[in-house]
Each structure stands twice: as structure tokens, then as C-alpha cells.
């Protein structure tokens, strides 16, 4: 991007930086990748907690008796799962904020690309 007459140098510099990083297309691709990764993260967390649920249910139906019950053994895993769920929810909120800001700046970003 040549520095057109009247365009501040700082804006021209920012436009070049956006272009060098792939422009708006690169940003959109990263956002799509982010969404896919967030979905996969949710699927994995759901599968892990589902496995814990199934194992605890089997344990209860078998009346283990002499060994420590699964729900006791799995307590720390459930705490970790809850922490990851909370982190994922925080990330979803942050992602929505970024998406909103991106949509508001979309036209300007197109100009810089």
C-alpha cells in the first residue's frame, strides 16, 4: 500500500502490517479455526465426563463393596472437568466479544487489506 496523499503514516503502517499478515482473509480463517477447536474441545470434555458417568453407574450397579467407590475416586477428575468447563465458557464469552468487534470493524479492515 503506497501512502496516498492525506493518509497518516501510522495508518499506512498499520495497513501494511495487516496486508503482510494475510489481510482480513487470514483473520477470518483464524476465527473459523478457533470455532472448530472450541467445538472439538467441548466434544472431548463431554466425552470425558460421559465416561466418568458411565463408570460410576457401572460401579453402583455392581456394588463394589470392598474398594473405594468410583464417585470418590473420580472427585478430582470432576473438579478438573468443572474447571475446564468454566474456562471454556469464559473463552466462549471472549470469542463472542472478539467476533462482535470484528464485525463492527469489518468494513475498515477490508480497506486496510
Explain this structure:
There is one protein chain. With 113 residues, the chain is mainly alpha-helical. The protein has four helices and no strands. Helix 2 runs antiparallel to helix 4 (75-112). The termini are close together.
What structural keywords apply?
about 110 residues, 4 helices, about 85% helix, mainly alpha
Q: How many DSSP-defined strands?
A: 0
The helix-strand sequence is HHHH
Largest sheet: none
Question: What portion of residues is helical?
Answer: over 70%
Distance between the termini: 9 Å
Principal-axes geometry comes out as rod-shaped
Quick description:
It is built from 4 helices and no strands. The chain has 113 residues and is an all-alpha fold.
Q: What's the arrangement of secondary structure elements?
A:
Blueprint lengths: L8 H12 L2 H40 L7 H4 L1 H38 L1
Helix pairs in contact: 2-4
